Amino acid sequence: MKKMLAGTLGIVVLAGAACLEPTEPVAAHDYAFCRQDASSGMRSCDFETMEQCLAMISGRGGSCTRDPFVTQSGQSYAYAPKRDGRPHR
Length: 89
What we know:
The protein is an alpha+beta fold. It is built from two helices and three strands; from the N terminus they run H-E-E-H-E. Strands 2-1-3 form a three-stranded antiparallel β-sheet, with helices on one face. Strand 1 and strand 2 (about 45) form a beta hairpin. The longest helix has 19 residues, at about 1-20. The termini are far apart.
């Protein structure tokens, strides 16, 4: 019984230490394409390319569109490079 209690206590201590370890934040990523489900109408914007989105809806139905809320200027609808070739910011 004492061995089982000691083993359980060891697992709890290791799990607690893992929770306290500092972690790095995950970088935010704006995906440029969204899939809208045909049956529920749910929209998920998890695709980097139109081809990825089209592959997901293949055989399931739905539609793929560009994300209207994308924040990167190079991927927005009204993107136009400056005359010197650099994008507007």
